[in-house]
Design brief:
Length: 493
């Protein structure tokens, strides 16, 4: 039975979606049908299609009582909206249906687990109590489980907070049973990931503390995901209130990847390595899916919580998903590349080799805001390295965003302070990259309101949104000193 609250949301989104013109949205990054979007939820492959649900408030372009928006795609790039899947319409989730995940049941139905939020007023203070709830459906309509919540404070280990207990990520194990990783806050005030197990996907029990922050990486660990990758295990989580460590991590809500091993019997993850997932400005709360052909693909929320004011509150939508990225491990690090399906969207190739860049250079045919561009950079003369190289894009007489590289420091910087933003928010970020003799390989993907930069075949990624007017479609190259580049550019259609 569809509730009144969900019916209203579905009616509203259908009417208001029509007011947003196609060219006012990204072309191949998912944006909310209308209003507000944050975390990806329930990213899954079900009945022959990819399903993406998302944290959704249809009525305004700002965060509000959370619904789940819903879209499907055959190739992870062209998305079709489906009606909103969940609304905060029950006593146990009346203040929000927070993030969660999806699995397929043996009978062919899809099961969603999400965090139900209820505000409690106690001693003149308000607190949000969080539980895990279930809904089962057919890929369009979902029925909430009569015995919700499926997990509540009774299922917490000692010391774990009932206020920070969210973002269940389920997966199916080889023996046909299910496991679920959930973000939690232990008594030390930082973060931990709890592991729950289930035989049927509906009845769950606590197994163990999967991983502990011990106050190292930020505070509360949100939106966990755990999976096998190239012979190791990866645990992704998004810590709140991080502090930078050199060029690794950055202030605020960030993304953390731990690589190591997972003792499934004991339910404990053993860390070998930690790193940032995305070194740019706008990336958070990623979730992954296993594709039918065995690729592990990740999509994150392409926005920074502290920088939401980059977009005017009058805009009809706010929030985008990142590109789907194939994950792999190389030299012991998590690496990412755009899904190969993107190559099918390429057209209008323009290629140049051995271009000398000294001062500013523009190249015929190299411009646009929906672009896939590869740049191979090297010094013009090995004996005389350049001081700085930059690509400026989304550029006209007034605006541009730039990616600049100083080989001596090995620092790549993204900077959108001239992108037309009127806000005093974070506009630049720097990353330490690997270079030998000033050589660097860059692949930049532009889609109207964003840029994602893949460095050295996916060793690092830097992501940023920019809401520059679309007329600003210039691309130019600059060097202080002399650099040489090979460039291949495609439009994406
Ligand atoms: C992360 C997050 C999640 C929560 C959701 C609420 O961005 O804070 O922890 O489930 O957003 O919208």
């Amino acid at each position: 039975m569809t509730s009144q609250t969900l019916r209203e949301a579905r009616k509203y989104e259908e009417a208001f979606e029509k007011l947003i013109k196609e060219e006012e949205r990204p072309a191949f990054h998912l944006s909310p049908r209308t209003g507000w979007m944050n975390d990806p939820n329930g990213f899954s492959y079900y009945k022959g299609q990819y399903h993406m649900f998302y944290q959704y408030y249809p009525y305004e372009s700002k965060w509000g009582p959370m619904h789940w928006g819903h879209a499907v795609s055959g190739d992870l790039l062209h998305w079709e909206y489906l009606p909103a899947a969940l609304a905060p319409d029950e006593a146990y989730d009346r203040d929000g249906c927070f993030s969660g995940s999806a699995i397929e049941l043996p009978d062919g139905r899809q099961l969603l687990m999400y965090t139900g939020v209820v505000k409690e007023h106690k001693d003149n203070a308000e607190q949000e109590v969080q539980t895990q709830c279930i809904a089962v459906g057919d890929g369009i309509d979902y029925e909430k489980y009569a015995e919700n919540p499926a997990l509540d404070e009774k299922d917490l280990p000692e010391g774990a907070s009932r206020i920070d207990f969210r973002d269940p990520k389920m997966w199916k194990r080889a023996d046909g049973t299910y496991a679920c990783a959930i973000g939690s806050r232990p008594a030390d005030g930082s973060g931990q990931i709890l592991l729950y197990v289930s035989k049927d996907g509906v009845h769950w029990e606590f197994q163990s503390i999967l991983a502990s922050n011990n106050n190292r990486f930020g505070k509360m660990w949100e939106c966990p995901d755990i999976f096998e990758l190239d012979g190791e295990w990866a645990l992704l989580t998004s810590p709140q209130d991080m502090l930078p460590e050199g060029f690794e991590y950055h202030n605020g809500n960030g993304t953390l990847c731990l690589l190591g091993s997972f003792d499934e019997e004991a339910g404990v993850f053993h860390e070998r390595h930690n790193q940032t997932i995305d070194y740019g400005i706008d990336f958070y709360a990623p979730q992954t899916v296993l594709t039918p052909d065995g690729r592990r693909v990740m999509i994150g929320w392409m926005q920074n919580w502290d920088a939401c004011s980059i977009r005017s509150p009058e805009a009809p939508w706010l929030g985008q998903m990142s590109l789907p990225r194939e994950l792999f491990i190389r030299n012991g690090r998590l690496c990412q590349r755009p899904v190969r399906e993107l190559e099918e969207m390429r057209c209008n190739r323009a290629a140049y080799s051995d271009v000398t860049v000294s001062g500013t250079v523009k190249l015929e045919g190299i411009k646009g805001r929906r672009v896939d561009m590869e740049i191979l950079l090297r010094p013009g003369n090995p004996a005389e390295p350049y001081h700085k190289f930059a690509v400026r894009f989304a550029q006209n007489d007034r605006y541009y965003t730039s990616l600049s590289f100083r080989p001596k420091e090995s620092i790549l910087k993204i900077d959108r302070k001239f992108s037309g933003s009127r806000r005093a928010i974070i506009h630049q970020r720097r990353s330490l990259v690997d270079t030998v003799d000033g050589e660097l390989k860059l692949r930049m993907i532009l889609d109207r309101f964003s840029v994602e930069v893949f460095v050295n075949d996916g060793e690092q990624v830097m992501t940023a949104t920019m809401y520059t007017e679309q007329e600003a479609d210039g691309i130019s190259f600059f060097a202080d000193g002399t650099a040489k580049i090979d460039v291949v550019k495609y439009d994406l259609q």
